[in-house]
Every structure is written in C-alpha cells, then in structure tokens.
Design a protein that fits this description.
Strand content: 15-25%
Strand order of the largest sheet: 2-1-3-4-5
Largest sheet: 5 strands, parallel
Helix content: 25-40%
Oligomer: single chain
Radius of gyration: 18 Å
Number of helices: 8
Distance between the termini: 29 Å
C-alpha cells in the first residue's frame, strides 16, 4: 500500500510558502507549513514527516540551528534547504550539519519537485549483520554512522557521519574497483531519477566529507577524483555485511 508523503515547508515569505504548499499538494502530498524556526522544531517534535523543505533565513531560531537540533536528536528526515543566491557559506554549513541537498532562490518548479521526489525515495534498509567498512586501519560503522580509529597512544577516537555521508561511503565501498560517476551517485544515492536535475550537491558533499576525514590518519586520501569519470574509494576498503 502506498502512503501519502508528508512534507513540512519552513518559509517566512508568505507568497513562497503558499506557492510551495500548493505545488506539493498538487503532487498528491500531505504538505503543511510554518513560518519560523521555533514552530518548525515544535512541529517536527510533535509528528514525523518524510521531507523538510527548510529556508535558512527564517525568524526566531535560524534555519541552520533548526537543522543542527534536528540532527542532534537523531532525526534523519531528508532536509532540502533553500538558500539565497551567492550564499555559498550557508550551503557548506548546511551540508556539514546534515542537509541532504540545497536549492538556490529563485528556483524552478520542475527542479524543486524533482529534488523533493528524489529525497522522498528512501534507500532500502536491510536487516542482518552490522554493516562496516574496514579501511586503512579505521572502521566505518554504517549503522551507527561513525568512524572509529586508534591513535598512537592506543586510545580510540571516533567521528560522526551524516546519513548522506554514510550512504555515499557505502556506495563507493561497494564499487571500490572502479570510478563512480556523479550521475550514478545522483540516481542511486540521492534518488534523482529525473535527468533534468542539475545540482552540485555531490561535489559539495564530497568536498565537505574530505575535509571532515582529515581528522582520521590518511583519511584525506580515501576519496579520489578520477578525472573525467567521477570518484573512487582509493584505499581498497571492503564492506562487511
């Protein structure tokens, strides 16, 4: 049985909020909206949704703080952030905090719908043994979304991953024998099956993940760029399932 997707739109500009609600409802989705950060947190605490469309420039609790609090309490609901043109620092900050993708204002209707549909396609969750990647002396726990490694003093260290970073590493590890194109990642990791979608989200996510992995000994070399092809897990990590 197909369930109706539930979408929460967080946008303080009334014409944009009303337009987005009408757009999503026209897709047959259950869409609701709020105009400030405090109301967004209250709504998300009260009921589960399948997608959050979050404007970063909202009154009260800022959009980035809303995202931080949502992820801090373990909520992995897909989040599509709306940013102002030229606000690259907001995009980077949003990705670091666990945003799944971003759209820059002004945006096209077809593009926004395609992004939303992609993020609503959840990856299949399989039961069984824990999923881990052993790579260059470190362990990536895909279930706990955590990287663990030992220091020279034999004291364990760990680092959290976002859900999207975990999916990205898992996909690359399963195909470590070859380069993976951006198009493959958009389709299989982000769920963007619409060929009209044009986004740099893959490159931004990879860039931020590489920055984060610098904390792990040798981690900055884990994801290699293959010119003209895409990305490859460069250290021969193997996925244990």
């Amino acid at each position: 049985m197909t369930t109706t997707p539930r979408v929460l739109v967080v946008e303080d500009e009334a014409p944009i909020l009303d337009g987005l609600l009408a757009l999503f409802r026209a897709q047959g989705w259950d869409a609701s909206g709020v105009a400030d950060g405090a109301s967004a947190l209250e709504s998300l605490a009260a009921s589960r949704v399948d997608l959050v469309v979050l404007d970063l420039m909202i009154p009260g609790v800022p959009g980035l703080e809303v995202l931080r609090r949502v992820r801090a309490r373990g909520d992995d609901t897909p989040v599509l952030v709306l940013t102002a043109k030229g606000a690259e620092e907001d995009v980077v900050a949003g990705i670091e905090l666990g945003a799944d993708d971003y759209v820059t204002k002004p945006f096209g209707i077809r593009e926004l719908v395609a992004r939303a549909k992609g993020l609503l396609r959840r990856p299949r969750v399989t039961s069984g043994a824990p999923r881990r990647i052993a790579i260059a002396g470190a362990t990536i726990d895909l279930d706990a979304l955590e990287v663990r490694w030992e220091t020279s003093a034999d004291s364990p260290r760990s680092m959290r991953l976002t859900a999207r970073e975990g999916s990205l590493l898992e996909y690359l590890a399963a195909r470590a024998h070859r380069a993976v194109t951006r198009e493959e990642l958009l389709v299989d990791v982000w769920g963007y099956r619409d060929g009209t979608v044009r986004t740099r989200t893959v490159d931004v996510h990879v860039q931020q993940l590489r920055t984060k992995l610098r904390a792990v000994p040798g981690g900055e070399a884990w994801i290699a760029t293959v010119r003209g092809r895409g990305y490859r897990l460069a250290t021969g990590g193997e996925l244990d399932e």
